[in-house]
Specification:
- This protein is α/β, with parallel strands linked by helices.
- The protein is built from 13 helices and 14 strands.
- The protein has 2 domains: 51-304, Aspartate Aminotransferase, domain 2; 307-438, Alpha-Beta Complex (Aspartate Aminotransferase, domain 1).
- The strands form 3 sheets. Strands 1-9-8-5-4-2-3-13 form an 8-stranded mixed sheet, with helices on both faces. It has a 3-stranded antiparallel sheet with strand order 7-6-11, with no helix packed on it.
- The termini are far apart.
C-alpha cells in the first residue's frame, strides 16, 4: 500500500530542492540588468505552501484561506477579512455592498455622489460608475499626493453619501480629518489600502479606520498571491453583505463545503419563493463570484510572515531615493509623508519642477533606456482618460495639481528586491542625465 504521508514529505523535500536550484539569485550587471519598479519576492515557503494546497486539491476556499484571512485580521486589528480574486474586485464589492436594500435609508442609490480623486488608479473610480453613482473629483496636494481636505469639505453636497479614497502610493491620507467629515455629514468611508498594506497613521494600521477597507495582492503590491485581494471591516452586517455580493449574491453564509450552519436551511420564507426553499439557493443580492482559490491563499499566508520585513525594506529604499534626488533641489519636488503618517511606501514619487531644464518625459525616457523602470502616477487625471470622457462625474472646484501631476510626476520602485548596487547605478545614471542638461 502506498504511504501517502511519506510520499507527500518527499514531494515537499523535492519542492525545496527545486526552489534552491531554480531561483538562484543572479548578480546585478549595471546597464544590462533591469532595475524594476516592482516584483515578487519569495522563498521556498511560498512554493511549499502552493504545492501543499495543490496536493490537498481543495480548489476553492479552504484551510489556507482561513489561515491567510486570520493573519491579515491579526495584522490590521480588524474583525472580518474576506478574500477576493483581486483588489479591483474588492473595491467593486465594497461599494456594491453599500447599495444593498438591507441597509435601509443608509444604502447608496443611483445618482448619489461619492467623493474621490482623479489622480489615482481606475479601480477606485470605476466601481462608483458601475454602481450608478457619481464620482465627485477633488484635487490633491503636492507633495503628499493625497486629497485636499479643505477642498473636500466644500465638495460635499446634499447628494454626497460616501467617500472612497486610496492612500496614494502608500502615503496615508489624513484619515482623522476624513473620518471626522464623514461623521459630521453621516457618510460612508471606503479606505482603498491596496498600495499601503503595512502603513500606519498615528500608530494605527491603515485599513482599520474606515467602514470598509480593501487590499490588493497583485505582484506589484506589498505581498502577492499573483492575482488576489481582500476586504476588511469591523461591522458584522457589512461583512455579511460583502460575502453575499462576493458569493453569487446568495443569502446563505455557509463556508464552502458546509451545509445548514444556521440550522434553518429548509424552514424559512424568502421573497416570493415557496416556504422552505433551500437556503443555499436563495439570492438576496445581485452578486458575483469573486472568491480566491486556496492555492493563492496558501502563497499569501507565507507572504504575510514576510510583510513586516518587506515594509521596513520599502522604507529604507524610499530613503535611498530621497538621498539621491535631494542632490537636485532645483529640479525636483520630493514626496512628503502626511503629518502623523508612517508610510510603508509603495513607491518613490517625484515631480519635476516647472523651471527644470528637462521634462518628466525626457527623464523617464532616459531612465527606461538605461533599464531603470518608471511609472506615471497611474491615470494622471482620470477625467481625461478616453473611457471616462462621456461618463457622469463632477469636478468639485479645480484639478490644477492633478493636471500638473499628469504632466510632471513619475515614480520609482521601493520594493524589497532592490539592492545597493541598483541604487548606486541609478544614482550615476540620474547624475549623468542632469549634468548633461545643466552644463
Amino acid at each position: 500500500m502506498t504511504d501517502f504521508k511519506q510520499l507527500r514529505k518527499e514531494i515537499i523535500s523535492k519542492t525545496i530542492e527545486y526552489y534552491e536550484a531554480r531561483f538562484v539569485p543572479t548578480a546585478f550587471i549595471p546597464g544590462k540588468s533591469r532595475v524594476n519598479y516592482a516584483g515578487r519576492v519569495f522563498n521556498e515557503q511560498e512554493l511549499v505552501n502552493a504545492v501543499e494546497a495543490s496536493l490537498d486539491f481543495w480548489l476553492t476556499e479552504g484551510r489556507f484561506s482561513e489561515e491567510f484571512a486570520e493573519k491579515i485580521a491579526d495584522f490590521l486589528g480588524v474583525k472580518n477579512v474576506l478574500l477576493t480574486n483581486s483588489g479591483s474586485s474588492a473595491n467593486l464589492l465594497a461599494l456594491s455592498a453599500l447599495t444593498s436594500e438591507k441597509l435601509g435609508d443608509k444604502r447608496l442609490k443611483q445618482g448619489d455622489e461619492v467623493i474621490a480623486v482623479a489622480a489615482g488608479f481606475p479601480s477606485t473610480v470605476t466601481p462608483i460608475i458601475q454602481c450608478g453613482l457619481v464620482p465627485v473629483f477633488v484635487d490633491v496636494t503636492i507633495p503628499t499626493y493625497n486629497i485636499d481636505i479643505n477642498m473636500m469639505r466644500k465638495a460635499i453636497s446634499s447628494k454626497t453619501r460616501c467617500i472612497f479614497l486610496a492612500h496614494t502610493l502608500g502615503n496615508p491620507f489624513d484619515i482623522d480629518a476624513v473620518m471626522s467629515l464623514a461623521k459630521e455629514f453621516d457618510l460612508w468611508v471606503i479606505e482603498d489600502n491596496c498600495d499601503a498594506f503595512g502603513s500606519a497613521f498615528r500608530g494605527k494600521k491603515t485599513g482599520s479606520y474606515a467602514h470598509i477597507s480593501t487590499i490588493s495582492f497583485y505582484p506589484a503590491h506589498h505581498i502577492t498571491t499573483g492575482e488576489g485581494g481582500a476586504i476588511c471591516t469591523n461591522d458584522p452586517k457589512l461583512a455579511q453583505l460583502i460575502r453575499a455580493f462576493r458569493d453569487w449574491g446568495r443569502d446563505c453564509c455557509c463556508a464552502g463545503g458546509k451545509n445548514n450552519t444556521c440550522g434553518k436551511r429548509f424552514s424559512q420564507q424568502f421573497g416570493n419563493l415557496p416556504f422552505g426553499f433551500d437556503h443555499k439557493y436563495v439570492y438576496s443580492e445581485i452578486g458575483y463570484n469573486l472568491k480566491m482559490t486556496d492555492i493563492q491563499a496558501a502563497i499569501g499566508s507565507a507572504q504575510m510572515d514576510k510583510l513586516p520585513s518587506f515594509c521596513e525594506s520599502r522604507k529604507r529604499h524610499f530613503n535611498e531615493w530621497t538621498r539621491i534626488f535631494s542632490n537636485y533641489p532645483e529640479c525636483f519636488i520630493l514626496p512628503k509623508a502626511t503629518e502623523g503618517a508612517d508610510p510603508a511606501w509603495f513607491a518613490f514619487i517625484v515631480t519635476v519642477k516647472e523651471n527644470a531644464p528637462f521634462t518628466r518625459d525626457e527623464l523617464t525616457s532616459y531612465l527606461n533606456s538605461k533599464l531603470i523602470e518608471t511609472r506615471n502616477l497611474f491615470a494622471g487625471n482620470i477625467t481625461k482618460q478616453p473611457g471616462y470622457l462621456t461618463k457622469k462625474w463632477r469636478i468639485a472646484d479645480h484639478l490644477k495639481n492633478t493636471d500638473y501631476i499628469m504632466n510632471h510626476t513619475f515614480f520609482l520602485g521601493t520594493y524589497p528586491g532592490l539592492t545597493k548596487e541598483m541604487f548606486d547605478y541609478s544614482a550615476k545614471v540620474i547624475d549623468t542625465f542632469i549634468k548633461e542638461r545643466t552644463n
